[in-house]
Amino acid sequence: MTDSDTDYDVAIVGGGPAGLTAALYTTRLGLDTLIVNRGGGRAAMMQDTHNVIGVTEDTSGVEFLQTAREQVEAYGATYRRGFVSDVADVGDAFALDVDDGEDTVTVRQVVLATGFSDAKPDPPLPPTGRGLHYCLHCDAYMFVDESVYVMGHGDSAAYVAMIMLNFTDEVDLLTRGDDPTWSEDTDQMLRAHPIDVIHEEISGMTRGDDGWLESFEFEDGTVREYRGGFPMYGSDYNNDLAAALGCDLTDDGTVAVDDHGRTSVDGVYAVGDLVPGHNQIPVAMGQGAKAGIAIHMDLRPFPRSVEDIDREGPVDADEVPAISESLRETARAFREGAVESAADD
Known about the structure:
Elements: E1 8-13, H1 17-28, E2 33-37, H2 61-75, E3 78-81, E4 84-89, E5 94-98, E6 103-112, E7 116-118, H3 136-139, E8 148-151, H4 155-163, E9 171-174, H5 184-191, E10 196-198, E11 202-207, E12 213-218, E13 223-225, E14 228-231, E15 235-237, H6 240-245, E16 268-270, H7 281-299, H8 306-312, H9 325-344
Helix pairs in contact: 1-2, 1-7
């Protein structure tokens, strides 16, 4: 369906769960789709996958994303490892500079799925996924009846510490030498919950043979045992491309979107951890699906409206199907492979 003046119908910038799901929908709905992924990201760091129905916990983030990528490519999407350094509105299309301008790709619409980076505290720290965890909703279940720490000095850290009392009676709040910045109301709440606030900085750490955290040593010489915990130091949103395009941002740096991922700039969508909401894989996948469907509705040429019929005339038989020949060939091959696989079973 690609417009003859552009290389692709859609470019997805980012290869996490949200971006790959958006690409799955746009591709299966007949749009020539490019995914540009620089690698890394929150999902890729997962040691185990939690809260994704149908995906077992022994699946790592890398395995999860690799399977998703292979699925999307099998449907006909183009996957490219690279970095989009700039996106510019060039009239009826967008131009993407890939790998610092070494290549320019033109597309009709853009999906930004660039996520964010968690602000990490200073070491010593246990490995991510083995005592250092960033998602309470994903990982609190792992710490039922375990000793848990929360790092930070603001309201979010205090609240997470209190929330963890729903799962365990052993919760410490580690300010690591910083003065508390939480509000008076939060301080009153915190004092009414059985949480130890430890102000000394961490001076050392021990890990077990399995790599998991066992304990922290503090500068006053005390040692406290922990199975794991949550650092709460905020997030750095990868919103440079959105800002350059003129998309509205919220106060915390996320990209403002409607219920289908549309930004304030026509033709630009944003999904996943880059937008407001819960930072969860199923939520990101839902956002990607809704954006993919909305883009299909934006770009599909049929049904031709009454106004367009008056201007262009009725749809000629030579104009259908609208899907590009390359996607038609891929769809036919995919269908034939599925039939053969079913026959073998």
